[in-house]
Each structure stands twice: as structure tokens, then as C-alpha cells.
Specification:
single chain, alpha/beta, Rossmann fold, seven-stranded mixed beta sheet, three-stranded antiparallel beta sheet, 5 helices, binds flavin mononucleotide
Length: about 160
């Protein structure tokens, strides 16, 4: 099974998840606020969408499901991550939730696909940046919504080959 697991407080991550779902074949869309993360256990390819809230925190539904994510064995699972954030409003915690989720799944053995360049973003600090690149796709609907479709197109082309 292949699925996109997401949660969304104001609809931005949901919209991006839907667009990714329409570009890639065979991925079920799962809103974890309703369905939780149990189906991760049945998946061999997983896409996870998280937004950052508070000051560098996981979105609430992800926070509520974190203990369940920590129960999943990600060994032999391919995982691609995307994160929504606001680089102007939160330049010191930009898309931190993406970095938090990366830590969780790699600790449990996930094989990560779909890291991206941080070119074209302006921020000071991000937990999602490791060695000069982002651990997944970064979307900023607050400041750069005009770039979203191109960013999605190239990321989906890339991960579609490996997931
Ligand atoms: C109160 C509040 C706190 C936020 N905190 C952060 C943050 O720490 N880092 C960040 O990159 N974005 C932050 N954001 C921006 C959201 O992550 C961004 O608007 C995102 O698109 C929301 O996605 P969602 O509606 O799918 O939850 C915050 C937004 C609000 C309103």
C-alpha cells in the first residue's frame, strides 16, 4: 500500500496533499485527524505532510499522533516528507516540524527520498535543513504561493521514480 498522511489546521497542507495525490499514481490520501496513522504499518511507500505551528512545533493533530508514529517500524519503508511554513513570520523556526518528523522516522529506520535544495528561500534557522539542504519538500503558501505548483511538479517527478 502507498499513502499520503497529512494534517492541516487552515487547509494549506491539505491542498498540497491533494495536489500531490493527483500527480502520483496509487496513493491513498489519509487525513490523520480522522484516521490516525495505523495504516502506516501496511505501507511500503509513505508521504508525510506536516505544517509548523506555535514556535517551531508540530501541528496539533500530528502532536496528538506522535506516540503512534513512534510505534511504527519504518525499516524497509520509503518515506518522502513535505512541510508547510512561513519564512517571513518565523525565520528562526522555519518548517521546523519537517525536521522533527524527519528525526522521528529516520530514528525508526526509514529510507528518505525527496530531499531538496534550500535555494530560493530566505530564513535564518530551520530544523528541516541538514548540511545545506532540506530533508523534504518545503512549501510556503504565506509568502511564495506562486512557486508552489512548480515546486510540486519537480518534486513529484523526482519522488515518483523512487516511491
Ligand atoms: C500561530 C501560528 C504559528 C505558526 N508557527 C510557525 C512556525 O513556527 N514556523 C513556520 O515555519 N510556520 C509557522 N506558521 C505558519 C504555518 O505553518 C503556515 O501558515 C502553514 O501553511 C499552515 O498550514 P496548515 O493550514 O495546513 O496547518 C505559523 C502560523 C500561525 C498562524
Amino acid at each position: 500500500m502507498k499513502a499520503i498522511f497529512y494534517a492541516s489546521s487552515t487547509g494549506n497542507t491539505e491542498e498540497v496533499a491533494n495536489k500531490i495525490g493527483s500527480k502520483l499514481d496509487g496513493f491513498e490520501l489519509i487525513d490523520i485527524a480522522n484516521d490516525g496513522v495505523d495504516k502506516m504499518n501496511e505501507c511500503d511507500s509513505i508521504i508525510i505532510g506536516v505544517s509548523t505551528w506555535g514556535e517551531g512545533d508540530l501541528q496539533d493533530d500530528w502532536e496528538d499522533c506522535l506516540a503512534d508514529v513512534q510505534e511504527v517500524d519504518f525499516t524497509d519503508k520509503k518515506v518522502a516528507l513535505f512541510g508547510l511554513g512561513d519564512q517571513d513570520g518565523y525565520p528562526d523556526e522555519f518548517v521546523d516540524a519537517l525536521g522533527i518528523m524527519y528525526e522521528e522516522v529516520t530514528t525508526k529506520g526509514a529510507t528518505i527520498v525527496g530531499k531538496t535544495s534550500n535555494d530560493g528561500y530566505e530564513y535564518d534557522e530551520s530544523k528541516a535543513e541538514i548540511d545545506g539542504e532540506f530533508v523534504g519538500l518545503v512549501i510556503d503558501e504565506d509568502n511564495q504561493s506562486e512557486l508552489t505548483d512548480d515546486r510540486l511538479e519537480s518534486w513529484c517527478n523526482e519522488i515518483g521514480e523512487s516511491l
